Amino acid sequence: MALAIRKSTFSVLATARCIVPREFRSLSSLPETNEDVAQDVAKRSTGRRIRFQNPALEYRHVYPEFLPDPNPKWRNTLREKMERADMLKRRSQIDIPEFYVGSILAVVISDPHAQGKTNRFVGICIERKGCGLRAEFTLRNVVDHQGVEIRYDLYDPTIQSIQIIRLEKRLDDKLFYLRDALPEYSTFSFDMDPEILPEGTPVPVNPVQVKLKPKPWLERWERQELKGVANIEEHLKENERVRRELRKTPWEKYDLMKQYRKTIPAEDQNEIWGEVHNQLNQLKLSRKKMFKKRPVTTPKTQLA
């Protein structure tokens, strides 16, 4: 009886092995192709699954306004899709170049009260925020010893042109502390010549650290982890240092849920970039053909 049961069990296993296709590998842990071998070795060495990153996800740095608001209360799929179509149509009419916080821009807008019906402003980008058609950026410059800031809507139809004077990044995501810094860090001539980098070079990071004026300040800069300020400690008292230590929250950088609430899932990003990828590439190629004969200008030395 026992011999008969053992024989029937072997026959069932042999039949199942013939029926189950080779792609179904739950009964075997051996890789079958060269790619599977490489993945299997990587899994054993790292202990994690390999995730193939979509190269279009890098667009989140160049076109951050195409990503919707991470807050689910302000999400609307239909509205976001219609806004992306309007943004692409606007980009086909005007060249909106790549820029970051810390870049120096020249913006020309229609102004019925200005001479020539246009107004041109040059300044450093101190903030870039918003999503969709509500995306905006702020430029700052010191004119006649007076700080001037203008906030523009990125897709404002009154904007005639946006020109990059100097493409670079800074050490911080926002440069509001320039309001309390020495004026030379925010002073730019309206006749600056644009500096054009060779194609394919990475965006340079300006490591300059500004010097703040004595107090009072507009904000408590000592409580913010700023990398672009050099002399905060010179203007602090002992009780302010104590309060700063009490206000620190070093555990927030390990809060995964807080980071998750501030970002868009990769699945949604893949869907968005898959929708606008081809049109953005076509616009980029057309701009390259137009500006193919531009001279290359070496960036000048920055303030130290």
TrEMBL record:
It holds the Pfam family Ribosomal_L19. The lineage of its organism: Eukaryota, Metazoa, Ecdysozoa, Arthropoda, Hexapoda. It comes from Papilio xuthus (Asian swallowtail butterfly). Transmembrane segments: none annotated. One of its GO terms (cellular component) is mitochondrial large ribosomal subunit. One of its GO terms (biological process) is translation. It is found in: Mitochondrion. One of its GO terms (molecular function) is structural constituent of ribosome. Belongs to the bacterial ribosomal protein bL19 family. Keywords: Mitochondrion, Ribonucleoprotein, Ribosomal protein, Transit peptide. The gene is LOC106116573. InterPro entries: Ribosomal_bL19 (IPR001857), Ribosomal_bL19_sf (IPR038657), Translation_prot_SH3-like_sf (IPR008991). This is Large ribosomal subunit protein bL19m. SUPFAM superfamilies: Translation proteins SH3-like domain (SSF50104).
